[in-house]
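call fold target=Putrescine oxidase
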Amino acid sequence: MADLTRDVVVIGAGAAGLTAATEVKKAGLSVAVLEARDRVGGRLWTDTIEGAMLEIGGQWVSPDQDALKETIAELGLETYSRYREGDSVYVGPDGTLHRFTGEMFPVAPETEKTIAEITERLDAMVAEIDPDAPWAHPRAAEWDEVSWDAWLRAQTDDDEAVRNLAFATGSAMLTKPTHAFSLLQSLLMAASAGSYSNLVDADFILDKRVVGGLQQVPLLLAERLGDDVFLGQPVRTIEWSDAGATVISDGMTVHARHVVLALAPVLYNRISFVPALPRLQHQMHQHISMGFVIKVHAVYDRPFWREQGLSGTAFSPYELCHEAYDNTNHGDERGTLVGFVSDRNADDLFRLSAEERKERILESLAHYYGPEAKNPAVYYESDWGSEEWTRGAYAASFDLGGLHRYGADLRTPVGPISFACSDMAGAGYQHVDGAIRMGRFAAAGILDRARG
């Protein structure tokens, strides 16, 4: 069993952990990165399935994601725009398909007016929220005690307006039922993207992709770290004191002055801490849980929807696949669609056989794109809920009341242990951009303490 001594040990080789490791190493400290999986990247994973390159994990880059854009540029990677020429489609409550352009769904004028008014109200609220400290808002406690669904339904009795407004932070982002998280949590999600309007604008949020896949970011960072990255090393025990820590994995022991836990908070309980973490952390981490979404990939011999003048962008709070997009790879003559099935719908689908699940998902895509959608050459479901070292998707969020109660303590180091991942970011929350920001934040804290 290898026995190493380092200045810093990072647990988790996702974007946050590898960024933290890169920053401390750049500053002259020695580092070891321990990763439970047999690959780097965490929730970033680009793989080839039946000859098709698929982004099994995160993939998009939006204009406000400066930390990610800087990293992409620094690594010499290229981006390309998501295909969006032509009409989007919306399926209404009666199952009717509507083609449209622009941001606003083709709903009745009264519903459109209601959506616009509440969006304006939300943008004003979000503008007052600091994404790094949403709990500091004067009304934070009040906003954290009401569910997102209850608040929306208190604004209007127009069910279609509520469903379309709710979906941006519910099914689409936090991937939990809208009664399961607070208005404050929803406002944080919007503030992390700059505004609620940004969050509902697919052309903004899902702007660009990286040529060759977004997992190249962690792969290239790990390549630079070289022999300091150790795969297949799930950490079992951390023995710590104010002087430092001993980190014990399946195949090695690392003695270090500083530890960065760069994994989702839902996984902290897989590690035995000696002594135990303080009671505040024990309580806090039990109020954080993963959402769940199935990311569906369907590859066709050509992007047939473009022949119909469709962009591939599709939405409906009434459909099994609540949103779908043209996800064709750069320079690929085949066409790829990506669709998403969230929260309770995702749970229900996994109670079915694989064949029935596929049939129902493709039927939903066919409601947007026509019967040709039912016959992909390659079909794949990203199921992060069954991943041992992730346990959900896309990310973790607090339950009702948890953000105001515990949020301020989420990133606070405990002895030599710092915390970093996208689940605790402000700007870039739940995105790779946030993971990079949190990796930088943890590294800066360690370097300050090392100098002190």
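return ok
The chain has three domains: 2-42+215-277+414-451, 46-84+205-210+292-386, 104-200. The chain has a mean pLDDT of 97.
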